[in-house]
Amino acid sequence: EIHIKEPIEKEVNPHLLPGELLLCEASTVYKYIQEDGSNRGTYGKLVCTNFKIAFLDDDSASDDNEPQFKNKIVGENDITLQCVDQIYGVYDEKKKLLTGQLRKYPEKLIIYCKDLRVFHFCLRYTKEEEVKRIVSGIVHHSQTPKLLKRLFLFSYASAAPNNTDGRNQTVMFDTLEDWRDELERTKGNVKYKAVTTNEGYRVSEKLPLYFVVPICVSEESILKYEGRGIPIWCWSCHNGAALLKMSAFPKEQDDITSQTQKAFLDGIYKTISKPPYELLKMDDLSSSLPSLQDIQVAYTRFKQLFLIDNSTDFWATDVKWFSLLESTNWLEIVRRVLKKAIEVAECLERQHTNVLLIEESATDLCCVISSLVQVMMDSYSRTKSGFQSLIQKEWVIGGHGFLDRCNHLHKSDKEEAPVFLLLLNCVWQLVQQYPPAFEFTETYLTVLSDSLYVPIFSTFFFNSQHQKDTNTSGESLKTQSAPFRFLTVWDWSVQFDPKAQAFLNNPLYAEKPKLDKSQRKTARFKHQRQLSLPLTQTKSSTKRGFFREETDHLIKNILGKRIGKFINSSDEPPNSFREFYDSWHSKPVDYHGLLLPRIDGPEIKVWAQRYLRWIPEAQLHGGGTIATAAKILDLMEEVQSLQVKMDEEHSQAVSGDVHSVPMLRNSARLSSLFPFALLQRQSIKPALPTSTWKDLEDEDDLVKRDDEFVDLSGDM
């Protein structure tokens, strides 16, 4: 059966943003709704602009079928040029990767996106000239190297009226005052100072204008090696211990240079190891964590599991799911990173030791570990504004090379690595393990990961503060020397209306109670007592929460060996770590105190909302956490309306805006991957492949046989 919407008769024009230009288009393009062999789809127009690739059908013109969670910048059928991962052409049923100049044009186009969407376009009914223009246009604008100033970011900034106040209580850390306030907030101002040594970038272009160092470190020391070998402050714990980071010296140097640098480092270490400073523990992350190349290889394999072409592929890989997942090594990397963050937290919290994270540039894994430690130890970082301020401090101002690591300019694949995505994956583990501790939801994290590829915000499109500053004061299109006014991603009103923004806020967040002055003294004493952990070891089950009593015996047999490999990892934590970890997990959770993630075996999970949201077969209709959230939001709406009535009765004006709560009636109609999987998307589960039925019929053979191992690395 073939389901086809007839070609549209009325003209549908793309919605263009300020500074957006239409570059090429093709009519009578057929988009498959679901590539499952049924050929269901719709005709429309495929366009390419300097911002996005968009498919326009007759639904694009109507507002009747508006989703509840709509992005105002990027529509359901829009792909920003930076979000395109790979493009394949289909020639005589064979897929071929499209790059550079094309000699022959395909009959079908498959676009794989970095947010894991997959688009299938049939060009068989399109005019030949239009096919040439649209295919070469899409490949050229999304896959070839480009100059920084050619990013849509600059076109938009010079054409768009910037009336929004993007701060939204987020501390940007671009002023000296911001750093001093942070020092005061964490009580670090006794031993550490904010410095202006790098004003005008006279120390280094890689360092921010302002940063914090120990009081005893001189300006001369900072200038000596362009900031290398200098401990830079990240955060101070309630007990005075601090988290520091340092950019290491290059390893390949001649003997005289190495000796001079070693003497310099020894002098620095001695200075910051004396009182009033705590003992110092150094941790070279390049030797204790996977390399950026390992992280990139693992993620490349991992994402292939979710870039599904059709239903047949999904069900074929479903049987081998555990072996495929394990062979990517991605979850193991997430586990190792979380374990490292717990080790650092133990040094700060229990041993009262300063921790110095060392990395070649101190802008990659240092950012991941320092951010994770703060999320685990500082409840302020678990609020929305606190988390955003943390990303600004450690990543944006801290100098993480977003431009290179996300490969936005397609300059070098060697520099690409999903370091920021790794952090979001680790934070998601904490969010799903301790939901009441976070003011934001997993939807917030998913949307934040999508925003990496939306080039109207400057937040994720520069390598350093210096690069942004030097490119901000440029000639715009209209005036000779007006500086560009870039938007920040933290102004969520640019992408979402208030109704949609409600999905970013956690209705079950356990807000910290505000104490009056008479209670504060006792509360401080109580806080210290809660955080000092006893040394008694308690035995915890590594499989807790995974195999439930009602689990089928057959499934236990099938998965037992596979899960065992995760649990009995060769990288077993040492005794003091295990003691700290088990002791903390044996107590009730204080949602405003220290949070330690559960990292044993199957506790590390796949971030389902981000990775499975476009696969209809993976959705639970009327189930999942959204069914619970729908009921809670309905209840909140009712409470708010009663509150308004009470206020009206007492004739008291409500101060501030009442949070808009979306209407989520009929939660049975929602899918578990809502709000991304829309209500109208239905999936018909095909019959299982014949080979699978044979396997299931012979239960004994299935139990005895090991899960088939498939190497995703190809010829590597």
From TrEMBL:
Keywords in alphabetical order: Cytoplasm, Sarcoplasmic reticulum
Gene3D superfamilies registered for this protein in UniProt: Pleckstrin-homology domain (PH domain)/Phosphotyrosine-binding domain (PTB)
Pfam families: 3-PAP, Myotub-related
InterPro entries named among the record's database cross-references: MTMR12-like_C, MTMR12_PTP, Myotubularin, Myotubularin-like_Pase_dom, PH-like_dom_sf, Prot-tyrosine_phosphatase-like
Localization of this protein: Cytoplasm, Myofibril, Sarcomere; Sarcoplasmic reticulum
Main location: cytoplasm
UniProt GO BP: phosphatidylinositol dephosphorylation
Myotubularin phosphatase domain mapped to chain residues: 173-611
GO CC annotation terms, alphabetical: membrane; sarcomere; sarcoplasmic reticulum
Nucleus in keyword set: no
Family indicated by similarity: Belongs to the protein-tyrosine phosphatase family. Non-receptor class myotubularin subfamily.
PANTHER family named in the record: MYOTUBULARIN-RELATED, MYOTUBULARIN-RELATED PROTEIN 12
Annotated protein name in UniProt: Myotubularin-related protein 12
Organism this protein belongs to: Eudyptula minor (Little blue penguin)
Top-level taxonomy: Eukaryota, Metazoa, Chordata, Craniata, Vertebrata
